[in-house]
Each structure stands twice: as C-alpha cells, then as structure tokens.
Specification:
113 residues, mainly beta, seven-stranded mixed beta sheet, four-stranded antiparallel beta sheet, 0% helix
Length: 113
C-alpha cells in the first residue's frame, strides 16, 4: 500500500513537502508518479519519475517549483513544492507499483491567504 502525508493549509508563496510511504512491495523496483485533483476537476499528472536515477518529468504548471525525490531506504518518495499558488490547492496522490496499480488515499493541500 501507499500512504501520502504532509498536506495542510498554507499561505501562497510558502514551501511544503509531501511524503509517499510504501509498504508491502519493494519500492525500489518501481517508479513513482504524483497526481493531484482539485475540486470539480479531473485528476492530473504533476510529476512522473522516468528512471531509477531520479530523472523526472514535470507538468508545465509546476516545472521549476516542484521536485520529486526518493529515499529507498525509507521506502518513501517526496514531492517538494515551492512557491505554492492558490491553484495548487488539490488532493495530491502518489502512484506506484506494478503497472502503476497502487494508489494512496491522497493528502489535502490548501493554499489560501
């Protein structure tokens, strides 16, 4: 399973790091994707780790602000989010496992002044 954490209410411009902790499967064998879903909108891909060495593709709307990393010893991936904007408000999901079949329950990020 996957468990996301770290989401909370923040003001615009601040930074926040989300965690994605895996259990029950060997995290190092799989790549990681981060998605988000804002109220009334479809789920969208935020970042997609494309290789074991950490190379990641980012959606244009987060490029330069968000960074994905992974600590394989802790079975945890991270989404570092800088300069948060109102439009970053969403539930953030981590996705991994065989054929990207494993999803977490999501963690809520709210950007509000």
């Amino acid at each position: 399973q996957i468990v996301e954490s770290g989401g909370r209410l923040v003001q615009p411009g601040v930074s926040l790091t989300l965690s994605c902790t895996a259990s029950g499967f060997t995290f190092t064998n799989y790549l990681v994707k981060w998605y988000r879903q804002a109220p009334g909108k479809e789920r969208e891909l935020v970042a997609h780790m494309i290789s074991d060495d950490g190379r990641t593709n980012y959606a244009d709307f987060v490029k330069g602000r968000f960074t994905v990393s992974r600590d394989t010893t802790r079975q945890t991936a991270y989404l570092q989010m800088n300069d948060l904007k109102f439009e970053d408000t969403a539930v953030y999901y981590c996705n991994s496992g065989a054929f990207y079949s494993i999803w977490g329950q999501g963690t809520q990020v709210t950007v509000s002044s």
